[in-house]
Amino acid sequence: MNSEKQYLDLTLSNDRDHLLQTLDSMLEFNIIVEHTTLHINQCHRLIQEIQDAYTIIYQQSIHQKQVSCRKVLTRDVQAAEKFLHSIRCAVQSLEPSKPWLSDLDVRNRKFKHLIQSYKTLIEMYMAIVLDNQRRFSLFFEEQIKQIQPAIDIEQVFQSTSPPLPVQILLQRGERTNDERIQQWMSTVQDIHKDLQVLANTCKVLSELRNELNIIFERYRRRWPLILHEGDFVYVIGDNLDLIEKVPVGLLHKKNCNYKLIVILATVVILIVFFCVEIILLTS
Question: Is it the case that residue 8 has pLDDT exceeding 50?
Fold first, then answer.
């Protein structure tokens, strides 16, 4: 009798621990998804500001005006990189985990929507970078072709940090003490730096896109298939093996239990919070 009671207590304890672990996992998943979605939306706005800044820089450079927003552009590009890094880490932390059966379909859809939004963000940013690379490269080439004596354009394009050919051009204007040429050469030098930033951003985005393509492929293979046939729900694995078979009625009951636990946990947290606030106010 005692052994049966001990076994029952142990079983109930294990079920309770599993339920609490499941609840923590569900709450953590939803919190990460919400925060990541917020970061994606913020990054969309930031990328649009980057596009506007590049347009202004391009127009001001053509008319040989003083560029006023290059510092803002640098700040926004760095902020976008931080957002992308945060989103990347969040997606990688969510991708390998598997939910329990009753939450599988909902979680599946949330994760799929999240990585699709992430992919759209990367493609949008990549399109902006490539378009500006094309415009700035053509403008840079046109400016270089006007230099006398002529300079090897290929050598200029292949130059990295420090951009020696551009520095040489700048020094030509300084030696002739011609302010117009100095301003012209300074513009060419700044455009060369912009092209380097664009090339670096393109490299980062290409790496992120390749990683995301791998996640898409892994996602397609990793998540099991759910079939609802009659009174049962079947979970089919990659090798067409039956992972789990659960009666629909039991599944609905589990769903109700999980939702009830979430509601109760939220109520308890709110009660504790208000009690603490009251104690702090009265003390």
Answer: no
Give the whole-angstrom CA distance, residue 105 versus residue 157. Answer: 51
Nearest to 87 by CA among 218, 205, 219: 205
CA distances to 177, 178, 203, 215 from 207, rounded to whole Å, are: 45, 44, 6, 13
Asked if residue 103 and residue 90 are part of one domain, the reply reads yes
Same domain, 157 and 280: no
Report yes or no on whether pTM surpasses 0.85.
no
For residue 216, the number of C-alpha atoms closer than 13 Å in the C-beta half-sphere is 12
Cβ atoms within 10 Å, residue 79: 15
Q: Is 232 helix (H, G, I), strand (E, B) or coil?
A: strand
Token pair in block for residue 50: 């980057």
Q: CATH number, domain at 20? A: 1.20.58.70
Report the distance separating Cα 139 and Cα 141, nearest Å: 5
**CA-CA distance, 122 to 210, in Å (whole number)?**
11
- On whether the CB atoms of residues 170 and 185 are closer than 8 A, the answer is yes
Per-residue pLDDT tens over the stretch 124-140: 999 999 999 998 888 87
